[in-house]
Amino acid sequence: MIDDGDRPTAHVQRDEQPATTGPTTPTGERPTQPPAETRHMPALAMIGVLVAVAVLATTAVLHTRPATAPAAGTAPAQGTTVSEIAGQQIVSPRPVTAEQLATLTLATTYTSIPAAPHDPAPDHAPAGRVLHPTTTVPVFAEPGGEPVAAVAAQQPLGVQPNLVHSDTWLPIVNEQPGWALVALPSRPNNSVAWMFTDTTDVTVATTPHLITVDRAAFELTLTTTGRITGRWKVGIGKPEAVTPAGRTFLLAALRDEHSTFSKIVLPLGTHSDTHQSFGGGPGTVGLHTWPSADVYGTASSDGCVRVPADALQVLTDVPSGTTVLIK
Predict the structure, then answer these.
(1) 5-9, 52-56, 294-298, 316-320: segment of lowest average pLDDT
(2) How far apart (Å, rounded) are the C-alpha atoms in residues 236 and 264?
(3) How far apart are CA 83 and CA 93, in angstroms?
(4) What's the CA gap between 249 and 262, in Å, rounded?
(5) CA end-to-end span of the chain, whole Å?
């Protein structure tokens, strides 16, 4: 595990690139990767994965038992071993061959991981630690348990054939020696899994920010190092397509100068509970602005959170992986 400490806030690139993706990294950079075939991402491509993003989510809710760390003194899962580093016992991950890894479903905004555990505390704000796998790694139902999915170093976003990729940063919602329980960007909502962190394949950092969406008050609050640094009136999902509750995270930042509703969209790691797909995309919920201000303070979207332009300007500089707590 490589620990880069705090993840500094960085500015999204404000040049003429029509499609910008990616979290700010621990070095302060926000990578931009246009599609290989073209440097222009059509507006509809982004809308399909973001506006639809905000609207679509499966009605299937995972009710598996929350993942728990093995109690002290209990034997690890069969096929695993226990090592000791600095006086702490670390359960080794179950071996996963390259062939087995290739068969695991990648956790992305497009996929569903039905075997993933359910978030044990979806209404609590975690400590702000985030991680980035530098290569594709397996994630497990529990430390030393069975693999349930794989997480790649980058996340695909957009609609084929126009895809962009953003570095994967996931919030850590629980930890034990050598392991981190991370939120997943896939369905069902509030899916989590354990990732082995005692390896150079994983970088761990810290974000000082927390975004809270109070649906009843139609209010979004940005907290930085425990201090409120922004508060705005927002629009949320209408009654037939509600904005889903729980803790999720900023998945990336996308920009499209051709968009008619919001030049920048911040997709989240959650999906609409109403729509399976929307506009050709998977119905990922996002934060974005809107051409008319009358939507703020109302339940009128298809699941996305509509924010004022000044709020979006500030939120675009918040690192990906930062927790978004929707109440």
Answers:
(1) 52-56
(2) 17
(3) 11
(4) 20
(5) 33
Question: Residues 135-155, buried b or exposed e (16+ Cβ, 10 A)?
Answer: ebbbbbbbbbbebbbbbbebb
Partners of 179 in beta bridges: 176, 196
Backbone angles phi, psi at 270, to 5 degrees: -135, 165
> Would you give the DSSP letter of residue 87?
T
Q: Which residue would you say has higher pLDDT here, 22 or 228?
A: 228
Looking at beta carbons, which pairs linking 58-61 to residues 24 or more positions away fall under 8 Å? 58/112, 58/187, 58/188, 58/271, 58/273, 58/276, 59/273, 59/274, 60/112, 60/114, 60/187, 60/188, 61/188, 61/189, 61/273
- Name the residue with tokens 């555990």: 117
Cα–Cα distance measured from residue 287 to residue 302, given in angstroms and rounded to the nearest whole number: 12
Burial class (CB in 10 A: 0-12, 13-18, 19+), 78: exposed
Helix (H) or strand (E) holding 100: helix 98-103
Distances (CA, A) of 174 to 69, 167, 188, 327: 9, 21, 19, 20
Report the residue count for the chain.
Answer: 327
DSSP 219-250: EEEEEETTEEEEEEE-BEE-GGGPPPPEEEEB
CB 220 within 8 A of CB 231: yes
Reading phi first (left if > 0) and then psi (alpha if -120 to 50, else beta), residue 225 is in: left
Cα separations (Å) of 161 from 40, 150, 156, 174, 304? 11, 23, 11, 37, 24
pLDDT in tens, 109-141: 999 999 999 999 999 999 999 999 999 999 999
Pick from 79-83, 210-214, 287-291: least confident = 79-83
